[in-house]
Amino acid sequence: MSNPLDDLNVDPFDIAAQAAKIIADKSGVEQHDIALTLGSGWAKAADLIGETIATISADELPGFRASKVVGHVSTIRSIALPNGKHALVLGARTHYYEGHGVRPVVHGVRTAAAAGAKIMILTNGAGGIKTSWAPGTPVLISDHINFTATSPIEGANFVDLTDLYALRLRDIARSVDASLDEGVYMQFRGPHYETPAEVQMAKAVGAHLVGMSTALEAIAARQSGMEVLGLSLATNLAAGISDSPLSHVEVLAAGKEAEPRISALLAQIVAKL
Ligand code: HPA
Question: Which entry of 154, 182, 194, 257 is annotated as an active-site residue?
Answer without folding.
Answer: 194
